[in-house]
Amino acid sequence: MAKVALLFSTGTEECEALNVVDILRRAGMEVSIISISGDRKVTGSHDITIIADELIEEHSFEEDDVLVIPGGMPGTNIIEANELAQKAIKTVSDKGKFVCAICAAPKVLGHGAYLVGRNACIYPGMDDELTGAKVNHEEVNVDGKFITSRGLGTAIPFALTIIEQLQGKEAADNMAAKIVFRQ
Amino acid sequence: MAKVALLFSTGTEECEALNVVDILRRAGMEVSIISISGDRKVTGSHDITIIADELIEEHSFEEDDVLVIPGGMPGTNIIEANELAQKAIKTVSDKGKFVCAICAAPKVLGHGAYLVGRNACIYPGMDDELTGAKVNHEEVNVDGKFITSRGLGTAIPFALTIIEQLQGKEAADNMAAKIVFRQ
Q1: Residues B72, B11 contacting (CB under 8 angstroms)
Q2: Is residue A144 exposed (0-12), middle (13-18) or buried (19+ Cβ within 10 Å)?
Q3: Which of A133, A141, B10, B16 is in Cβ range 3.0-4.6 Å of B70 for a Cys bridge?
Q4: Hey, is A26 helix, strand or coil?
Q5: pLDDT tens-digit profile of B50-90?
Q6: Chain A contacts of B23, Cβ < 8 Å?
């Protein structure tokens, strides 16, 4: 069972995070919502409060197959400024596992020079944040182990792409049918 | 500012609920997540725990412009069996305001004979639950003040349709662009 770590901050776009949690759990993955805000109770950018599964201080990231960074403001900036979040990205990336970011969050990877020479996308108007990347406006990009996507409206294809990468196209297509996505 | 009441139960499909909360709040509506489970802390069908804004016992529904019923199991069945939830549907419907249901939840309206003669849709395989309705397999149906939709994969179009009904097509189109939905 693949292990997925999803970062959640004060000011995270709740549904960019939770659509991924929901759909990957439906696919049988072990998904942990990890608060970077020092409290498991966290309020996102649209005043939705959730209870995270763990604090970032409690999670090593050594065993994760996938790291997911949702967007939203100020959540993305808070994640970018968080040393443990940066360390998590490095840990997962160094192990050759998937690092996935959506909406404004690909800028965290861009600024960290993780996307140099790679196909990638980000929220409209932020292309310049993807340092050295081959930026396009597709809903989702997969390049090596980096998956990027553009906003709340692309969160479901983003989640389905993660399933496709880990479990294959048939599993992703079956999930799309089960949730009545573009049927 | 339109007032929206969204029911949330133990076992509710979290993102069928929260995509709507998120997008309608972005549109400036006053959205209240209303727990029907006796506690503001509620866990949905995919183990995501949220803090609701109110308990159903605290909310009158007399002033609401929109009532939203998300799906998920066992959440839908718990909502259907809840007397205060049934009373809420009757209150909002009697006042001629919008009653909206997604995934399995349109069955609550079907069983209550709210959809007789109306165009409506529901999660695949459940058409027979929509007593007397003209059932189709569109992503979203609007018939009078009843809006129905089919699953997590149609939650964003469902939310955008609610915006279109209350604020017009341009507002819905602007929101779709803002969240990068089908751009």
Answers
A1: yes
A2: middle
A3: B16
A4: helix
A5: 999 999 999 999 999 999 999 999 999 999 999 999 999 99
A6: 152
Instruction: Report residue B46: phi and psi, to 5°.
Output: -120, 35
Contact B175, B166 (CB under 8 A): no
Tell me whether B13 touches chain A (CB under 8 Å): yes
Take residue B154 and report the two structure tokens written for it. 């149609």
Chain A interface mutation, best of B4, B6, B18, B173, highest count of A Cβ atoms under 10 Å: B18
User: pTM here?
Assistant: 0.98
A16: contact with B, CB 8 A cutoff:
no
CA distance A46 to A42: 12
Among chain B residues, CA nearest to A122:
B180
Q: What is the pLDDT of residues A51-105, one digit of tens each?
A: 999 999 999 999 999 999 999 999 999 999 999 999 999 999 999 999 999 999 9
Q: Is B40 on the interface with A (CB under 8 A)?
A: no
Q: Are strands A3-8 and A30-35 parallel, antiparallel or unpaired?
A: parallel
pLDDT, mean of residues B162-175: 98
Instruction: Give the separation between CA B25 and CA A133, rounded to whole angstroms.
Output: 34
Say whether the ipTM exceeds 0.90.
Answer: yes
pLDDT in tens, A52-66: 999 999 999 999 999
Smallest CA–CA distance from A27 into chain B, residue: B46
Binned at pLDDT 50, 70 and 90, residue A123 comes out as very high
Q: B125-132 long-range contacts, Cβ below 8 Å, gap at least 24? A: B130/B106
Catalytic residue of the set B15, B100, B103, B121: B103
Tell whether A153 lies on the interface with B, counting CB pairs under 8 A.
yes
Q: What percent of chain B has pLDDT over 90?
A: 100
Which domains are seen in chain B, by residue range? 3-178 (3.40.50.880)
- A80: helix, strand or coil: helix
